[in-house]
Design goal:
This protein is mainly α. It has helices at residues 2-57, 63-74, 79-108. The radius of gyration is 27 Å and the shape is elongated.
Length: 117
């Protein structure tokens, strides 16, 4: 009697732990799929916008070459300035934007979902 009760109790405890692991895995899977799906939607929207911009640019269809020419001529057509100044400015810009977002989250407390990370 008592021995059977202990076995059933141990089995119920292991079932509960297994259920908690399965629920945790399902939650992680949902979050991962949400992040991947959102990223894919944003990527496709940006891609579509850039394709429209390239068509709007004109008959030459050299959007990227024209933009690169503008950047290159702005840097004085110097490779040293381009590689040192432009790459440093780009890295600093990304750093400032990401940290500005996290500062906003710390100061305002929103969005709430980011506090988990």
């Amino acid at each position: 009697g008592c021995r059977l009760f202990r076995c059933r109790l141990a089995l119920m405890h292991s079932d509960t732990a297994l259920r908690e692991k399965i629920v945790g895995a399902n939650e992680a899977l949902k979050k991962g799929l949400f992040a991947i799906g959102s990223s894919l939607i944003i990527f496709l929207a940006l891609r579509n916008s850039l394709m429209y911009l390239e068509q709007f640019w004109g008959a030459s269809h050299t959007l990227w070459a024209t933009l690169w020419g503008l950047v290159y001529s702005t840097m004085g057509e110097s490779d040293i300035i381009l590689h040192s100044f432009a790459s440093t400015t780009y890295a600093l810009g990304v750093f400032i934007l990401v940290n500005a977002f996290f500062t906003y989250v710390d100061v305002t407390g929103s969005p709430k979902w980011i506090h988990r990370y």
